[in-house]
């Protein structure tokens, strides 16, 4: 699936779910997908990714 299509699909998901999917991808793939999203949506998801990686887990933030 190309980045634009993936961005459209992930943008429809819960932000935590989208972040969980993106952290499992290679950083270039995740970056390409985020760059295709609306900037506000991408920022929300990127924030969730930072929370997940800072906590050292893929579990949803508390």
Automatic annotation (TrEMBL):
Domain Flagellar motor switch protein FliG middle: 18-51
Gene3D superfamilies membership: 1.10.220.30
Superkingdom of source: Bacteria
Protein name per Swiss-Prot or TrEMBL: Flagellar motor switch protein FliG middle domain-containing protein
Species whose genome carries this gene: Jiella pelagia
Lineage, broadest ranks: Bacteria, Pseudomonadati, Pseudomonadota, Alphaproteobacteria, Hyphomicrobiales
């Amino acid at each position: 699936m190309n980045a634009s299509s993936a961005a459209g699909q992930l943008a429809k998901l819960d932000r935590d779910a989208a972040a969980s999917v993106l952290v499992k991808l290679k950083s270039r793939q995740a970056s390409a997908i985020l760059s295709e999203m609306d900037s506000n949506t991408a920022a929300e998801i990127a924030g969730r990714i930072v929370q997940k990686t800072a906590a050292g887990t893929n579990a949803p933030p508390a």
